[in-house]
Structure formats: C-alpha cells, structure tokens
Amino acid sequence: MVDRAVPTNLPGPAPAGERMKIAFLGPFGTFCEQAVWQVAPTRSDLLPMPSVGQALAAVRRGEADRAVVPIENSVEGGVNATIDELSHGSSLVIVAEMLVPVAFAFGVLPGTKQEDIHAVGTHPHAWAQCRHWVEAHYPNVIHVPTASTAAAPEILTSVEDVPFQAVLCSKPSAKLFELEVLADDVADNPGAVTRFVMVSREGDIPPATGADKTTVQVRLPDNEAGALLTMLEQFSARGVNLSRIESRPSGNGLGSYSFSIDIEGHVREERIQAALVGLHRTCPEVKFLGSYPRVDGVRPNIRPGTTDEDFASARAWIEKILG
Amino acid sequence: MVDRAVPTNLPGPAPAGERMKIAFLGPFGTFCEQAVWQVAPTRSDLLPMPSVGQALAAVRRGEADRAVVPIENSVEGGVNATIDELSHGSSLVIVAEMLVPVAFAFGVLPGTKQEDIHAVGTHPHAWAQCRHWVEAHYPNVIHVPTASTAAAPEILTSVEDVPFQAVLCSKPSAKLFELEVLADDVADNPGAVTRFVMVSREGDIPPATGADKTTVQVRLPDNEAGALLTMLEQFSARGVNLSRIESRPSGNGLGSYSFSIDIEGHVREERIQAALVGLHRTCPEVKFLGSYPRVDGVRPNIRPGTTDEDFASARAWIEKILG
Amino acid sequence: MVDRAVPTNLPGPAPAGERMKIAFLGPFGTFCEQAVWQVAPTRSDLLPMPSVGQALAAVRRGEADRAVVPIENSVEGGVNATIDELSHGSSLVIVAEMLVPVAFAFGVLPGTKQEDIHAVGTHPHAWAQCRHWVEAHYPNVIHVPTASTAAAPEILTSVEDVPFQAVLCSKPSAKLFELEVLADDVADNPGAVTRFVMVSREGDIPPATGADKTTVQVRLPDNEAGALLTMLEQFSARGVNLSRIESRPSGNGLGSYSFSIDIEGHVREERIQAALVGLHRTCPEVKFLGSYPRVDGVRPNIRPGTTDEDFASARAWIEKILG
Amino acid sequence: MVDRAVPTNLPGPAPAGERMKIAFLGPFGTFCEQAVWQVAPTRSDLLPMPSVGQALAAVRRGEADRAVVPIENSVEGGVNATIDELSHGSSLVIVAEMLVPVAFAFGVLPGTKQEDIHAVGTHPHAWAQCRHWVEAHYPNVIHVPTASTAAAPEILTSVEDVPFQAVLCSKPSAKLFELEVLADDVADNPGAVTRFVMVSREGDIPPATGADKTTVQVRLPDNEAGALLTMLEQFSARGVNLSRIESRPSGNGLGSYSFSIDIEGHVREERIQAALVGLHRTCPEVKFLGSYPRVDGVRPNIRPGTTDEDFASARAWIEKILG
Questions:
Q1: I want to staple A227 with a disulfide (CB 3.0 to 4.6 A). Which of A220, A285, C263, D39 is the partner?
Q2: Domain B205-316 in CATH 3.30.70.260
Q3: In chain A, what is the straight-line distance between the N-terminal and C-terminal CA atoms, in Å?
C-alpha cells in the first residue's frame, strides 16, 4: 500500500473522497509500477497482482477501482495475456495509456565474478529484449525464466542453490535488493518502450480531447477470403486510420483469427461511430475496449468529408429528402 | 388531350378529383406516348412537348403534374438531354420507370418503288438502331435527321420536295399517316428496349416495395486519382449494388465528370441512406433524383449485415457504449 | 482533295514518297477538318466522309491511310458512334489526338431580319452546345437538325422553302457560304472543346513520349455486383490513373455495359502492361485501341513502386528465388 | 542421436548417401520432437537445441541440414521467436509444415498428495493453454516457468527443494521421467494444435503439389494510412487468399509493423508471382520464406482469370499488341 503526494489528472470518475485502489502486474519494482505512477491520483492504494488476469479480475470483482497492465512492447509486440484477458469475460475498458522506457540493470550478488555467471534469471520478455547484449558480453550463458523481472532479484537473494547467477531487472529492483549492477541501460534496441494501459469498468469513457485512441477487438468471419480487406474498408470508407492492428488466434483452431485494433479517434466522434457500426454489421463479434487520450498527444489527420459537421450535414440532407 | 379508361397504379400522390396533366416528349405516335400509357391514371391529359427540356420545365413551372421522358436505351445508352436536364435547375424526382420495346416500321408513301428510295428520314437515335438493317436492304441510302421519329412521317406526307422517300417510325405513327409499311419490326438488335421515366416534383417519393431503384447524380472531385474507386467503395462498404453507372462531362472542360447512377434499393432503406451519407460527405455534389419501383420487379440481393435491423442493432450497440 | 504546305510531325509510319490519304467526318468546313490540319503531313489528300462509320471503314478497307473523327466533347460527352465503331469490326488504333475549340457562328442569308428567324438549322451536338444562348437571344425559335454543322449553311443557301432561317456552323463555313454573321463565338460553355482522334490500322503504335494515353474498351462480366470496382482495382493495384471512363451499353440489353477508358501511360510501359494483363484475365473482353501522345503534354504522376525499373527489379527478385 | 526405420517423403534434396542432421527445439520428449518424426527420413540424426535461434543458426552455419521449430499454435498465436529469427540474418526457407495435437500430462512424483500441490512447473506457452483447467482443479496453485515443457519433469525429478510439485509436460516426457500422471489430455481448448515447420537453406523449394503455402515477411511503409489495405489489395487483385496474417513490431518503435503472411499457393504459380512482384514494388521490404506443401492438403479455390493459362494468354495478347 503506497501513498503519493503529487496530484495528477487521472482519467475517469474518481471515487469521491475515497482512496483509489489500483491493481497492477506486480511485484513492486517492475516497470508496471512505474507506469502506475504516471497516472495514479494523490490518494491511491497500489495492489500488486501475480498476473495480468488477476489484476483485471480484481477490477471485475470490484476489489480494485483500476488495473494497470502492459499491453504492447516495441520489441515483442502485443502482450497476449492482456489482449486476450480484456476480450473475454465481462467488459472492461481502457481509460488511459502510458509509455515506460525499457532498459534493464544486469545485476549480481555483490562479489560475483564474471566467469561464475552461467545463467541469467529474468522474465522471458526481458530476455527477448536483451539476449543479443547477453550473447555479446556473456557468450554461452543460458536463460532461466522467472515469473516477472522483479522476481529474479528476489529469488537470487533469497533462495539457496538458485540456478542463475545474474539477473536482468529494473534499476529500482536492483537497488531494492542491493545487487551489484554490472551494466546499466541494457537493451538490444535503444529506445525500446513498453506501453501500459489503465483499465476501468465498462461505461467509463474519458471525454474526447482531439487526440484519442479507441481500442476494439474484432473477430472476422471464418474462412472467408478477403474478410480482412473488407473489414479494413469499413475504416477507409470513413477516413479512419489505425495505429495498431494485431492478429490473435480466436481459439477456434488454426486459421481463425481475431484482431486487436487501435483506432485514431474517440467513440464520441461521428466517423468512429460510423466505422464501428460498419464493423458491428459485418463481423461476427466486435468488442469495445475503450476510448482514451493518446499519451503522445498526436492528433489524427481528419480527412475532408469526415468531420462531425460533414456527417451532420449529410444526415440533414437525407432528412430533407425523406420530408 | 387524351382520356383513358383503364385504371392503373400510378405512383405518387394523384391530384384528388382532378385530371392529371402529363407532359411527354411528343408528338403523339412516338414510343414515349406508349410509355405514358403504361402508368397514366384513368383521368389524364397528355401534353406533347417538343423537347425533353420543355417537358421537364412544364413540371417545374406547375403546368404539368408529371413528365414522361426517355432516359436510356439498350443500344445508344443514356439519353444525354434527360440526364443533364434532370441534374440542373430546381429538383425533380423520378417516381416510376417503364420499358418500351423498340422496333420500327419502314414506311413509304403508297406506291413508292424500291429504286426510288435514296434517303430515309428519322430521328438520329432511331437511325443508330437500324442503320445496319438499312445498309443491308438499301445500300447507299443516306440518313436525313428529323426532330423525332414521329416528325418523319408527318414531314413525308405534308411537305413538298421532301429530301427523303422513306421513314423509320413507330408502327402507330406509320398507320396514323397511312404509309405503306415495307418492313415491320426493323431493329439491328432484336430485343432492344428504351427505358422511360415518369418525373414529378421534389418530395414525391413512392413507398418502398422491396424492389426499388434510387437514382443519383454525383460529381467527383476534379483531377483526383482514384476518385471513382473511392466513390464506388462508399457503395460496397454498405453492400449496395449499382444497376447503371454512366459518366457525363460535368461541363468544366474535358476530364471533369459527373456520374449518373441507379442504385438497387430505396432511400427509406438504411443501407441506401448510409451510402448516400458517404457520398454527400466525400463528393462535391450529390443530387437525389428519386426512389421508385423497378419495372422488372427484381429484388436486390441484400448481403448479410446490411438489413435495416443490422443497422438498428449496430446503432443501439453504440448508444449503449455511450451510456 | 486538298494539299498542304506546312510539314508536321505526323505520328505513325507515313507511306514513303506517297501522298497520305486521310478520311474525315466531312464535309469540308466542319471542325473535323480543322482537326485534320493539326496533324496532316505536307502531302495529304483529304477525303470527306458522310459518317464516322464510313470514315473508319475507308481505313479498314485500305482506301485511306488514316481517319480523323470526333471522340469526345466537353459538353455532350463521348461521341457514341465513334466509340462504338472503333470497338467493333477489325481492329483500328488511335495514333494521335487533337483538340479543337468549339464556338459557332450564328449566320443568316444577308438581309434576314431578326423577327423572321423562327428556326435554326444545325447538327444536334451543336444545338446542345448553343441552346441556352439561342433561348436567351431568340426565344421561341426551334431547332431543325441537319446531318452536320456544315450541311446547314449549304442547305440554307441552296434549297428552296428551307424550314429554317438561321444556322449555327463553324466560322469558315459561314464565310464559305457568304452568310451574314449575326454573332460570333456562340457557345453556352466558353472554353468548350471537341477532342478528335486520328486512327490507323492495327499494329501502328507511336513511340512512348512520357506523356501518353492508352485507350481500351472493356466489357464487364454481366450482372456481377462490384465488377466495376474490381476492374478499377486492376488499375489502382499498379498505380495507374484514368483520364476518361465512359459507359456504353454492350448491346446485350439494359444493364449490360462496356467501358471506354483512357489510361494515363503507354502500352510500352510496364505498369500499363501489368494493368492490361489484369483486365485481360478478369474481363470477358478487352480491346486495345491505341497508345499515343497526349495533346496536352501532361506527364503522369508515376507513383513510387511503379516505374519500369521497379517492375524489372521485382521480377529479377522472383527469378532469383526460383533459382 | 536417433535413428529411424520408417522411410518418409522428406521434401527437399536429401544429402545422398549421408545421414540427415535435423536440429530441433529440444530437449527430447517435447512436442517438437514429435513433429520431427512426421517428416524425418530413415537415416536422420536429431540435434536437440536449447532455443529456436540456435536451431536455425545450426542450419545457417551448415552444422545441420534442417531445423524443425514451432511457428504457431492455435491458442497463443504465432511463435514470436521463430517468426522473428526467420526474418533476420541470411535466408532460410520453410520446406514442410507439420501439425501436432497439443494435450498435456499433469504429472507428479509418485505418491504426491493433492493437497501438497502449490505450484506447477511448465513452459509459459503450456501454462497459457492449461491455466483454466488448473484453476478449476487446483485453485490457488501458481505457475513456475521452465525453459521448455520437457525441462519441468527433468527439474522435478533431479533438483532438490524444487519450487513446484507438479508439471505439465508431454505424455512421453511424463513416462520417460516415471511420473505419476494425475490427468491425461489436459488442454483448455480440446483440439488445440501446434504447427511446426521444417526449415532448410535458401534455394530449397519443394515442387508445387497444387495444395501449397508460401510464407513471406512484409514490412509496411511507416506511418502511411491505408498501407495495410493497399498491401492486401496486391493479393486481391490477383485473386490470392491468405491463410494467416500476423503483425510483428518491426523493431523501429511502437507503431511500426511487419506482417508475417501465409499465402495459399506456390511461388511457381503465376498469380503468386504477380502478387509478390506487387509487394516487392510497393513495400520497403519483402522476405521470401518458402513454398511448401500444406499439411492439410487443402487446395486453394482458384478464381476465374487467375490460372497460369490466364496469365500466359494475357501476356501473349500484350506481345501481339507490341508486335
């Protein structure tokens, strides 16, 4: 349980007069905790959770007001667990997104010699983002997966006969566990970031800012040639751009896909509503997963003929024809 | 002025208790008069007009209740004068369409010898539909254009030193002027038909029958590569088919076009409205020229996801999201 | 038969040492003759023909080397007879295009009084381009169609009891027949032009200049929803733009269309060939009607990835894969 | 090193008279080994590798003739490591695909009591495919990740103070390590399968069978609205269907994607070549990753106008035009 002094502009209705409970992918010390701090209001209680599913379930069950979980990183792509968990069960919506630069500390127990390092403990995603660096500096070292990046230093410092001698974790974690840091800012891709989202219960839609994203999950008709093309035309017919599109197996066997999509715009804008109506009509399943401000503040290029006024004026024309 | 005994199901509001005045492309005896009879109500007065423009103008000025004019024939294509006149000036709308089989009588003054036929009088459209027949049967004969097919027998029987010895006209015309008919059913293309439309004033929209057409005139953005493709996608994104599309120069110089389009469906159907909204948003000019029953009664193939219910249900989903 | 002193860069193989025979839509004095002069070589014989069909037939039969006929005007649109005649029979190809500004002289027999003018003789296309001017200046005057604009002054000056008192014709014609010109430059649309084409026998393809057009006639599959969209995608998939697209009934009854299309580019360019291959594969009929320099010299905007080099390099990549 | 008696139809040139060396994602006992057995020739040596990257590197370095690695599973989606490794470095190509049904044994050390099970060791992908089953049968049990499914029983049986009491592994593995199997066929999704591929060196293209796949990796132009739509049109313009499309971050930051695509057809077919030429022209990077028989033997629906003959005939028509 952590308190915090700096007020922030938390999106969504804050529980008046009460402390906000925010579940997140724990433990403390992970990048996810850093993401929470970007948006948590003054009076928040942080609840570390062992998995994305459990963080989201805490919101679904009302045990937390919000959950913060990773959704995409610039090296590994979408975080499957998050995308899949959001699209199942009762509805949750994204109310904010946050970016956290991803660089790791390469830490060891103080006094460890370089030649004694045979294995590195860390989360598989972290390993994926550092393996070329490790191969270059510690050839022949193997990876031992841990449940989170923060779990690695915890295990290293507390378990006997631990099967690894070094860890890749966040810098605060390395400091917390008093490791000796042999390298700072380890990352195969400098500039790597992870995108996190803050999730709330259905019905919580922050107001449009002019620089927003809308996230949906769309299942395509099975085995229909051109179904993806047809789906994309629903966007292009309204001049709507996508900032992310990611395929996920829909769970009905190989060859059956859903798509997780970030749309440039807010569900309160007409062109977005028109595109969503098109999706709803033509796809077997569309799930709305929130409209929220873009963390980069980039405003979409709204093409001629797609402003709210253009839609209103076109509908007024039809009304006039119908008399 | 002609009266008529057989009641018909005239589309559009009939002037109660009064005779209906119907302007048409005259004179009497043309195919256009035959078209009028397909839809004219019991108590009608027919007003023959010397041009399409004047027939339409009679409706615009309130001197006629309806106008019947040709709009397309299966050999020559669109009737430019009609398409252009409809798209200019105050708005008129099509309320019915009619098909008239097109075959001509080849008539001469009684006693004319075959070797004396050096020229044939008829309207250029009729000539275009019979010229191969004439070349085959009367090689070296030339064409003398007349203002209508009915004008040809009238001139032949009334003017001295007339510059043609035979005419191509409708069979009723040939009979009316007591010509000797050397050949019946003359037509290069057996099965040729002309499509006529009945036009009323703006606001007159017959109810949807399930087998309807909607006619619009659309001007594309000038000099924009792919503008036609983009326009057609507004239809395909809503599963709407076209039964006719015809380009017309928009009058701004070569390379600038409008399109005259027949859409399968009625403006009271949601998918048609959605497509029209899309056109209105993205094209510099869209003119609604009527929704009316198809004369062939063919019902459109309504694709999954494009029924009125699909639209209503999609919009209800959006309303629910917006709370 | 007319000789001409100024040498020109006539496209296509000139009959060496011989005079070139050029059929055109006569008589002398029409705009078509003006078009011929824009491209005729020094030593040409001009053959005026009574119809477009006969001008083209003269080339097909070898009686003329070239034919010059109108193909499109900026008010009336495509010249149906030309488009249809080109697409039937043995193949002819367009080797050049020419633009002629269209403005008419309004001429009368010297001494005619304004109040005596009740009818105007001219070709229907000329009437279509001047009727608003006539209505404004001579209300209640009617139109008497003639076979060409040049036929009108000829009839006016030679026939007794002629049914019109004024003509609309080209200025050279008015001068030739010594008419009194009451108004010069008559045209509802200032800036109106007619586009003419010079036609040669199949196999005659002028070299690519970088600013060329290719003309084709394409028949779409009957009754196939989206067939036009699919056809246009064959162009857009290769970044090819169209400068003209015009529907023509294909002669199989209403609802069945061909399209006459001008493509920006030359058949010797890869992207044009790729688009034509796509059309040939997917449309029941494609007729090649020539590649020739654009009269306006406008070079197409060649999109990234569509140069000849891009095609060659992509094919080389495939060859390398195939080993 | 394993020998094998049953001859198989291994695709690709077999090293004559020599044993084939096949690297695979080890250790022995994983599903990947089962996949190898589906295609390995009689005389093969199997080389278990600790990672996908090392299995592929063995082929790149010539230490193995083939590698077998997982590429997609029906629950978790694409295997990122495989997709990414194939698209980097010198070229490898897929020469065969294999499906392995995925169901797990839930095993414990003989005599373990149900109430003593607090943690389950297995690979994260296996966990993802069984977690609902575990939650239902062993609520509150946590996951301890291992480097492979086969590593879990090995650790359970050989390490002291192992932090889990049960494992999810393949049935052969459970048997090999003499575990007590508490549940067979554990899988949240009955019918789950993993798709494996056999990889060879560039240039190795099995002959077309009529039921083939082609795999490519395509990078889209950055930040270009509609780039994905445009790319898909390169396929649809040639009637080519996709059986899988998966986005991967291209490593240039969030918002920049590559797509891993399985195409229905073989690179020796014309329509596939034409689509690949289109991709090569318009996308900044296209990597060919092999053409190989589909394991399910499904033949593509070849649309009218897209057979090899259609392409040949269209090209012949162009050749004739060019003279």
A1: A220
A2: yes
A3: 62
User: Could you write out the DSSP letters of every residue in B273-309?
Assistant: HHHHHHHHHHSSEEEEEEEEE-TT-PPP---TT-SHH
What digits encode the pLDDT tens for the residues A240-282? 998 888 887 776 666 677 889 999 999 999 999 999 999 999 9
Q: Which of C73, C147, C189 sits opposite B143 (nearest CB)?
A: C147
D148 burial level (CB within 10 Å; 0-12, 13-18, 19+): buried
Residues C63-117: tens digit of each pLDDT: 999 999 999 876 666 677 788 888 887 889 999 999 998 889 999 999 999 999 9
User: CATH: 1.10.1740.10, 3.40.190.10, 3.40.50.1450, 3.30.450.40. Which one for B18-101+193-202?
Assistant: 3.40.190.10
Residue range A149-198, pLDDT digits in tens: 888 999 899 877 788 999 999 988 899 999 999 999 998 887 788 899 99
CATH for D104-186? 3.40.190.10
| Per-residue exposure over A205-235, b if at least 16 CB sit within 10 Å of its own CB, e if not | bbebeebbbbbbbbbbbeeebebbbbbbbbb
Give the closest residue to C245 by CA, choosing from C253, C237, C235: C235
Predicted confidence (pLDDT) per residue in B38-94, tens digit: 999 888 999 999 888 899 999 999 999 999 999 987 666 667 778 888 888 788 999
Please check whether residue C259 is in contact with residue C231, taking contact to mean a CB–CB distance below 8 angstroms.
yes
Taking an 8 Å cut-off on Cβ atoms, the answer to whether D237 and C278 are in contact is: yes
Q: DSSP letters of B107-169?
A: EE-TT--GGG--EEEE-HHHHHHHHHHHHHHSTT-EEEE-SSTTHHHHHHHH-TT-S-SEEEE
Cβ atoms of D66 and D14 closer than 8 Å? no
Select the residue of B146, B246, B254 nearest C145 (Cβ to Cβ).
Answer: B146
Asked if CATH classification 3.30.70.260 holds for the domain at D209-315, the reply, yes or no, is yes
Q: pTM value?
A: 0.83
Distances (CA, A) of B316 to A261, A276, A280: 22, 11, 10
| C-beta separation of A105 from A174 below 8 A | yes
B abuts D (3+ Cβ pairs < 8 Å)? no
| Minimal CA separation from D277 to chain C, in Å | 5
ipTM over 0.90: no
* Domain C17-101+191-202 architecture: 3-Layer(aba) Sandwich (3.40)
* Residue B154 φ/ψ region, left for φ over 0, alpha for ψ in the -120 to 50 degree band, beta for the rest: alpha
Region B239-243: what's the mean pLDDT? 89
Question: A12-101+193-204 has which CATH code?
Answer: 3.40.190.10
Q: How confident is the model at residue D11 (pLDDT cuts 50, 70, 90)?
A: very low
- Residues of chain A found within 8 Å of residue B268, distances taken between Cβ atoms: 322
CB contact under 8 A, A247 and D77: yes
CA distance D107 to chain A (A): 21
Q: Which CATH superfamily is domain A205-323 in?
A: ACT domain (3.30.70.260)
Q: Which residues pair with B105 in a beta bridge?
A: B169
- Is the CB of A282 less than 8 angstroms away from the CB of B267? no
In chain D, which residues have their Cβ closer than 8 Å to the Cβ of A301?
Answer: 225
Provide the shortest C-alpha distance from residue C130 to chain B (in Å).
Answer: 13
- B18: distance to nearest CA of chain C, Å? 30
In the prediction, which pLDDT does B148 show? Answer: 79
Answer whether A12-101+193-204 and A104-186 agree in fold.
yes
pLDDT of B254 strictly over 80 = no
Cα C199 from Cα C65, distance rounded (Å): 9
Q: Sort out which chain D residues have CB atoms less than 8 A from A189's CB and list them.
A: 251
Rounded to 10 degrees, the C-alpha dihedral B58/B59/B60/B62 comes to 90
